[in-house]
Design brief:
The protein has 116 residues and is an all-beta fold. The protein contains no helices and eleven strands. Strand 5 (46-51) and strand 6 form a beta hairpin. The radius of gyration is 13 Å and the shape is globular. The protein starts with a strand and ends with a strand. The mean pLDDT is 97.
Length: 116
């Protein structure tokens, strides 16, 4: 059974940083690309960043470029999202995601609130 468990969210001031983690289980983590999505209040869920199974290639939404970094540790079955220079518009629930055996899997999400 695939499980994705996010952690690391919280309240942070504008300009601050957070590091999100997503612990994966139930599948061979190192064989699959991983994604971070977010859902801002009143908006649809959107892709923030993705990383290939080996971690040798990443891609980011324009809103995340230069501020967010996605990485993974295949020995720990964990994917990370380092978020720097946070803005109020980054306030959202952040979700970990993978596409495994023709199905999308999601974690429960972690709330990030950027506010002074």
């Amino acid at each position: 059974q695939v499980q994705l468990v996010e952690s690391g969210g919280g309240l942070v001031q504008p300009g601050g940083s957070l590091r999100l983690s997503c612990a994966a289980s139930g599948f061979t983590f190192s064989n699959y690309a991983m994604n971070w999505y977010r859902q801002r209040p009143g908006k649809e869920r959107e892709l923030v960043a993705l990383i290939t199974k080996t971690g040798d290639s990443t891609n980011y939404a324009d809103s995340a470029k230069g501020r967010f970094t996605i990485s993974r540790d295949n020995a720990k079955n964990t994917v990370y999202l380092q978020m720097n220079s946070l803005k109020p518009e980054d306030t959202a629930v952040y979700f970990c995601n993978t596409y495994w055996k023709s199905s999308n899997y999601w974690g429960q999400g972690t709330q990030v609130t950027v506010s002074s």
